[in-house]
Amino acid sequence: FSPGLLVVAGSFAAFRLLNRGLERLVPPPPSARRNRWKWRNIWTSLAHSVLSGGGALAGFYLHPELSKDLVGTHPPGAHSLVAVSVGYFLEDFVDMLCNQKLHQSWELLFHHSVVIVCFGIAVLLHQYVGFALVALLVEINSIFLHLRQILLMANLVHTTCYRLNSIVNLGTYVVFRIATLAWMTRWLFLNRQNVPPATYAVGTVGMAIMTPMNIILFYRLLRSDFLK
């Protein structure tokens, strides 16, 4: 039994409670009241992105050895952060499954399934924690993706705040999402001799799924916020 599973369970419960109480903390504006669950869902996702993205940066700053050994090094704080993220992705998976039609959410459900499996391996084996932390750097961009959705739901598209967020969103998308995924793919390829075949297969399939999904999302953002 891995103590990391307790962190996963605690994280799931904490994000579930946060989701339930968010309407009191951040009441939805009139334009978002028809879709209250989505308003709560996005704010919950934003909370996770701030925690995990900031935590990943702090992890590499406080533990420089992580960047030198992405496989064997697993400081307790970094391991717990990955476990917390597994709990969040499980909570978000359940939330979407209960509140959204499958044809509207299948892409994200598929994405979450891949992340849960990959991060779950790191939590259970106490290996690849550094690699998972690199993946969590993607969440720095997710902060601005979620802010974009919040501004859209609040009907604040034609504002300076939305425009500034769009620029920062696209910039961080390139740096923390596309470049990070490219670096992870390269790392997997260069270290394939040192990674067990099963783990290498999971990682390769994960990268093969994530990369086209993120390129498509980048094009959608570019077309929606700039090309129009």
UniProtKB/TrEMBL annotation:
UniProtKB keywords: Membrane, Transmembrane, Transmembrane helix
Any one of the GO CC terms? plasma membrane
**Transmembrane region positions?**
131-147, 167-189, 201-222
SMART domains membership: TLC
> In which compartments does the protein localize?
Membrane
- Tell me where on the tree of life, at the top rank, the source sits: Eukaryota
Q: Where is the TLC domain?
A: 34-228
Q: Which GO terms describe its biological process?
A: membrane assembly; phospholipid homeostasis; plasma membrane organization; regulation of membrane lipid distribution
**Which InterPro entries has this protein been placed in?**
TLC-dom (IPR006634), TLCD (IPR050846)
Topology relative to the membrane? Multi-pass membrane protein
| Alphabetized Pfam families for the sequence | TRAM_LAG1_CLN8
Q: What is the official name of this protein in its record?
A: TLCD2 protein
Q: Which organism is it from?
A: Oxyruncus cristatus
Q: What is the lineage of its organism?
A: Eukaryota, Metazoa, Chordata, Craniata, Vertebrata
Q: Give the gene symbol.
A: Tlcd2
